[in-house]
């Protein structure tokens, strides 16, 4: 609630952060490091939670959802974390929202073979339009 959000790739600044998401090249939930950009990273919802059926490689968003989604939903709903309502909502939100983010972020195509249509308005695409282009000389992410 009172967290300060820092956008950086500076390893010295990252080392001082309590939680690091999508940067740093490290997945270590014990230290609250949730990056999926290492070549060796292959985790899916199923590999981390064997009771879940989804095998899509997780993005950093999926990692955070995997580790904290049930807890957050339980708090918002005032329901037990292991209750039927939270479990059903957790599964539906992953299957119908977060899994798409995981797939898009990891370059997983929505269909085998030639897609029938272009996906141009996904959440990932919209967020991507907020960031500077990779070759933009001004990489200031705070410029609006």
UniProtKB/TrEMBL annotation:
Entry-linked Pfam families: MYG1_exonuc (PF03690)
Domain of life, per the record?
Answer: Eukaryota
InterPro entries the UniProt entry points to = MYG1_exonuclease
One cellular component GO annotation, for this chain's record?
Answer: nucleus
- Which protein family is named in the record? Belongs to the MYG1 family.
The name under which this protein is listed is: MYG1 protein
């Amino acid at each position: 609630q009172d967290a300060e959000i820092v956008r950086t790739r500076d390893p010295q600044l990252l080392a001082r952060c309590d939680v690091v998401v999508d940067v740093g090249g490290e997945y270590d939930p014990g230290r609250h490091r949730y990056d999926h950009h290492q070549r060796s990273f292959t985790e899916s919802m199923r590999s981390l939670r064997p009771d879940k059926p989804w095998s899509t490689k997780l993005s950093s968003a999926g990692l955070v959802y995997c580790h904290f989604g049930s807890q957050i939903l339980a708090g918002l709903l005032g329901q037990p974390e292991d209750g039927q309502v939270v479990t059903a909502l957790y599964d539906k939100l992953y299957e119908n929202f977060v899994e798409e983010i995981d797939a898009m972020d990891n370059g997983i195509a929505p269909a085998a073979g030639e897609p029938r249509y272009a996906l141009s308005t996904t959440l990932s695409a919209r967020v991507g339009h907020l960031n500077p282009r990779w070759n933009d000389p001004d990489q200031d992410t705070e410029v609006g």
